[in-house]
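tool_call: predict_structure(chain=1)
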Amino acid sequence: MIAKWPETIAAFQRNFPFRGFSAPSRQREQFSHARILIRMYYLFLLFTSIGMLPRYNSSLAAEVSVDPFWPIWWVGWVPFPIAFGAIRISFIATSLFATLSPERRLARLSVSVALLEFVALYTSVLRLDVDWYVWILTAFLLVFLPDGWREPDPFPAAGRERFLLVFWGCQAVTLLTYSLSGLGKILGAAWQIGTDQAHAFSPDAAARHIADRLLNTEEVSILGSWVITHGWIAWPFFLGSLYLLTFSLSTAFRPALHRWWGIGLILFHIANYLTINIGFSAHIFLNTLLLVYSPFHPKKGRVWETLEALPFFGILAQRISRIRTPA
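tool_result:
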C-alpha cells in the first residue's frame, strides 16, 4: 500500500481542477465563464429577496415568542414589525447592490450578512428548512473574490487564479454538505445493522423512509404511496442516492464529473419532492450554477474518461480501458 502512495498523489494532482491554469487561454475562458455565473448567483438572491419573504401581517406577530437564532438576537429589543421590515429591506437593497456591482467586496460582504439575517429570521419564525444553509456558506466564501473584475480582463493570471480558486471553494463546500449527509446515513445504517434494526441497505428501506416521513409531516406526495407499495423498485435508486451523496466531495477534484454529478443531485432533489414532498429549489439552482455549468468541466469530455473518473467504480473502468487498449 505504501508503494502506491506516489501513484495516488499523482492521480490526485491530475484530477485537481487548477492543474490547467498554466494555459492562459483556458484560464481566461474559465474566468469569463465563472464571472457570468457569479452575476447570476446574486441575481437569484435579488429575486429571492423580493419574492420569497412574505409581507408582514398580524399572524407573523404571534411567532415572536419563538426564541430567535443568534444572528437576529437583536430582534427582541425592537418591535417585531420594525425588525421584520429592516431585514427585508436590507436583504433587497444589498442583493440589488451585489447584482449591480458584484466586483465590489463591500457589496458581496453586505449581502452575505443580509442573507444570514434573512435565513435566521425565516428559520426562527417561518420554519425554513435547511435549503438555504449552503447559500450562507457560499455567499461568505464569495466575499474573498478579488476586487475589480468588471472589465473584460482586469488583472493578470494570478488574479484570475484566485478568482477561480474561490469559485472552486464554493463548489467544494456545497459538495461537502452532500457528503456529510451521505456519511451520516451510512454510519446510521451501520449502527442499525449492529442493533438488528431496519437499515438503509434493506430492500424496503426506501418505502420505510418515505412512509415515516409522510406520517411525521402529515403530508401527501405525488409518488409517495406508489413507491411505498412498490419499494423494491425504488431500492436501487435509494442505494444510488447514498453513493451519490457520500462521494460528492471527491467529485470536486474531478472536473469531468462536475456536470453529471450536478445533474444527479438535481434529480435526487426532484425525487425527494415527488416522494416525500420536500422541495430544495434553492439547492437545485445552486447546483445548476456551480456544477452543471461548471467552468472546469471539460469542453469535449469523452464518455470513457468520465467513467474512469467515477469514485470507486472508476477503478473498474480503468482496468477495462487497459484491456481495451493494451500497451
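agent: The chain is about 65% helix and 0% strand. Proceeding to next step.
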